[in-house]
Specification:
about 300 residues, 2 domains, Rossmann fold, about 10% strand, two-stranded antiparallel sheet, binds zinc ion, 12 helices
Length: about 300
């Protein structure tokens, strides 16, 4: 197998693009796809600071690496979810990565702020862990990024993440979620960051291969709370479709984006936002979902958590 660009020995085949690359040409392809996303979708410019949500997994560390190599001013944001050994290893990977490259980062610890990790918090508020985790992460990432003067928040979601999320949303016809599923969410309020996903043009296996080639040390384990998540079933289904017909994933997601762009031109989707009466952050309801969660936690769970401590 030869590289389609320079005919050196290829190390990766990309059936969906009907091509194969040697290590340097593959590396160039990966960087090009990220640059194409940033520029083509007008995600951010070099004058803006970009907060990068870093879990310690391959996607977020690859994203951070590429953005800093491209010369963007970045700040890593890590949420310590307080899930025992998994969280300790994740944070360690972020610390080692950042200090080797001299990159700044901030850690927000749930145990320090709520006296409990995400598993206990979710139990305390009677919600599935991934749902409570999503609310807490979204809220804190936004607040911390803006506190540090970063108007943009970049996350490591890749093509597989976006296509499987789309499949889930379509299977349940969740129109509200479909409206929000875009690689760029503009800040619809001065207290909100612009949310971007610069890796959406790259498949998970391409990112994993790039991480190995660049010797990026990341946490391989998935979050223990995500075991049994429907998202893995959707990813598996899409991978089977992809094997049978390369390019399926890409077409599914990119054709959705084309339709969404066409629809947005006819009737722009503007969320109806006001300020949460409790914390002042933008919200579609009187009390934001974060304050609701924290309120339930304080009323019902904190007395029990104090006993646990
Ligand atoms: Zn080559
Ligand atoms: Zn609030």
């Amino acid at each position: 197998m030869r590289c389609r660009k320079c005919s050196a020995k290829a190390i990766i085949r990309l059936p969906r693009h009907n091509t194969a690359f040697c290590p340097p040409c593959f590396s160039e392809y990966v960087t090009d796809q990220v640059q194409r996303a940033i520029k083509g979708d007008r995600m951010f410019g070099h004058a803006e600071g970009v907060a990068v949500a870093v879990s310690g997994g391959k996607d977020s560390l690859v994203l951070w690496e590429i953005l800093s190599r491209l010369g963007y001013r970045t700040l890593g944001l890590h949420i310590d979810l307080g899930i025992g050994e998994y969280s300790r290893i994740s944070q360690r990977k972020v610390e080692v990565f950042a200090s080797a490259r001299n990159l700044p980062f901030v850690v927000h610890s749930l145990r320090e702020n709520h006296g409990a990790g995400i598993t206990e918090i979710a139990e305390g508020v009677h919600r599935p862990p991934c749902s409570a985790c999503g609310v807490i992460k979204r809220y804190n990432m936004n607040v911390i990024a803006l506190q540090h003067g970063m108007p943009v928040l970049a996350t490591g979601h890749n093509l597989d993440d976006e296509a499987s999320r789309l499949l889930g949303n379509v299977l349940h016809w969740q129109d509200d979620y479909l409206d929000k599923q875009s690689p760029v969410l503009p800040n619809s309020h001065p207290k909100l960051v612009r949310k971007v996903k610069p890796l959406y043009r790259l498949a998970e296996r391409e990112i994993a291969a790039w991480a190995v080639l660049q010797k990026i040390d990341y946490i391989v384990d998935e979050c223990p709370n995500s075991v049994g998540s429907k998202m893995f079933v959707y990813k598996d289904a899409l991978n089977r479709l992809e094997d049978a017909a390369p390019g399926t994933k890409h077409q599914f997601y990119f054709q959705f984006l084309d339709r969404q762009k066409a629809r947005a031109q006819v009737s722009p989707i503007e969320p109806d936002l006001r300020e949460c009466v409790s914390c002042g952050q933008p919200s579609t309801a009187e009390i934001c979902s974060y304050c609701k969660l924290v309120g339930t936690l304080q009323r019902e769970a904190e007395p029990a958590l104090k006993v646990l401590k």
